[in-house]
Design goal:
Rossmann fold; globular; N-(1-d-carboxylethyl)-l-norvaline Dehydrogenase, domain 2; alpha/beta
Amino acid sequence: MKIGFIGVGQMGGGLARNLIRAGRTVWVYDLNAEAVKKTLAAGSTGHAARGPAELADAEVLFTSLPLPRHLEEVMLGPEGLLGRMKAGSVYIDVSTIDPGTARRLEAAAGERGIGFLACPLGKTPAHAEKAEEPIFAGGDKALFEKMRPLLEIIGKPVYYLGGVDASCALKLISNLIGMTNLAVLAEGIRIGEKAGIETRFLLELLSDTGARSFQMDVRGPWIAAGDFQPRFAVDLALKDVRLGCEMARAWGNEARTMEIALDYLRRASESGFGKEDCNAVYKVIR
C-alpha cells in the first residue's frame, strides 16, 4: 500500500514517522526540506515526493496543513489532488479545520468515488511523536472501520464521532475552551500580581481550589518562569479560535467569553508575539 502524507511539520511529522516506523511505505511532501529530512530519518520505508502530484496514485492520502485555504489549494479545483486520485482510494485529513471546509472536501471526494475522513487531533506534537495523539474521526462509518487499524498506528485512542461536522467541531470546541481558560488564567495572574502574590505561590495555592485546570498546570509555570517558547504558537491558536468562533456564530451560539479570548490572541499576534507560545496572551493583559 502506498501512503501519501502532505505536511510533515510539528504535528504531521510525528504521525508520518509512526507509519514509517511501523514499516508502511510512505511518500511525504512538505515545503520545508528539513521537515522531510527529519521524517525520512525514521526508517527506510519513507520516501520524498517532489510535489503533491506524485501522491495522486496513493491508496491512502493524509494531509496535515495549517489553514483551510491550504487544503483547498492542494485538494480542490482543476489542479487539486482530488481530481487526480483514483476511485476507491481514501483521503484522510488530520488538520484543524471548520465543518464547512470538511463538508466541501467530503463532497469533492465523493464525486470522484474517493473515501474521506476528517480526523482532527487532540493533543500536542510530543503526543503525536509517541502515537499517543487522540484522533476524532468523522465520516462514513464503514470507511472508518476499514481505516481504524491504520489510524491506530498514528495515534490512540481513536474515537468515531459520526459526521465530519461533529469531528471538526469537537477539535474546535476543545481549543475554544482551552484558550479561553488560558486567557482567564492570565487575567488571574495579573490580578494576583497587583495583590502582591508571587506567581509561583499563587499557582500553588490555586491548584488546591476550583480554579485548577490543564492550562494552569501546564502553562501557568511557563508564565511564572517567563517561558514563551512555542509549543502551540499564538498564531495557530488564533486561527483555531477564529474558526471556532466563526462556527459558533454560524450556528447561532453565544460564545462571548470565547470572543474575548479571540481578541486577546489577535492583540498578541499584532503585538509581535505570533510565533511565541499561546501563553504570550499574558503579555497583552494588564
